[in-house]
Amino acid sequence: MEKGVLLVGEPMGLFIANEVGQLEDVGSFTLTTCGAEFNVAVGMTRLGSKVTYMTKLGHDPFGKKIVKMMKNTGISTDQIILSDSRPTGFMLKEKVASGDPGIFYFRKGSAAASLSPLDIEGLDFSKFDIVHLTGITPALSESCRDMAETLNEKAKENGCLFSFDPNLRPQLWPSKEKMIETINGMAAKSDVFLPGINEANILIGESEPKKIAQRYIEAGAKTVIVKVGAKGAYYADRQGESGFVDGFPVTEVVDTVGAGDGFAAGVLTGLREGASLSEAVRQGCAIGAIQVMSKGDNDGLPYRDELDAFMEGNPHWRR
What we know:
Blueprint: E1 4-8, E2 12-20, E3 29-34, H1 36-46, E4 51-58, H2 61-73, E5 80-83, E6 90-95, E7 103-106, H3 117-120, E8 128-134, H4 142-157, E9 161-165, H5 176-188, E10 192-193, H6 197-204, H7 209-219, E11 223-227, E12 232-237, E13 242-246, H8 259-272, H9 277-292, H10 304-311
Parallel strand pairs: 1-4, 1-8, 2-6, 4-5, 8-9, 9-10, 10-11
Antiparallel strand pairs: 2-3, 6-7, 11-12, 12-13
Helix pairs in contact: 1-8, 8-9
């Protein structure tokens, strides 16, 4: 039986502003979909992985749109739970000329925020070789935090590689202290931990990639890959393998959101296909560069032929 990848999180409706300016001043938006784990699911599916997404959605237009997109992309919807009492979350995102866009959430009390350990009790983890989670999901509620802990335990019990991206969203947490405690605790239990350099500065007060990796390996993580933006990424593991991978040149920054999710999709796809750690990280850097040159959180994620052409330096890499 071919094993697949399991992602658990909150996909949402996304309204992207069609003009530069403050959200309250924008006259029109384009509706699409978003969510950190959802972006990784799309990225890995396009590269050929068998992907299952586990979440809760409301019986509403956003939920229906997300399910349709998953099916059209090839992501399994078998583990989606539909709620009659809670809505699907959504968010607004600015269009910017430079820098990170402003965002505003409508996700409090969402269906996904009610995820709990009971929701994953019946999952057959023997079907998966990788389980991926971000720090956004445990930020949603106390029951989501309990679910994240159970997810980690079940992944380990069943021999799955547990991948964790902190994806810090301070506005979703009850306090900064709770965020740091929970994220660092989950990082210590991860097989692959994927912090950004700015995130690590918040979490452990360190901004030097080698020291960041060493701190988390000493805490219990097996492999740490530190994202250093346009410069690339640094990786290290418990066996002593380490190195720096340069980033890929970017012609124009269109949208920075989703770059880290694209990076994760590239790394995890590489690892499950047997690539070396450095090769997997290089693939992650390539997709991260592609993402910042693309509008939307997941619209620009590449297919295999596009990724290969981009990594080879072909200027006509896009289909």
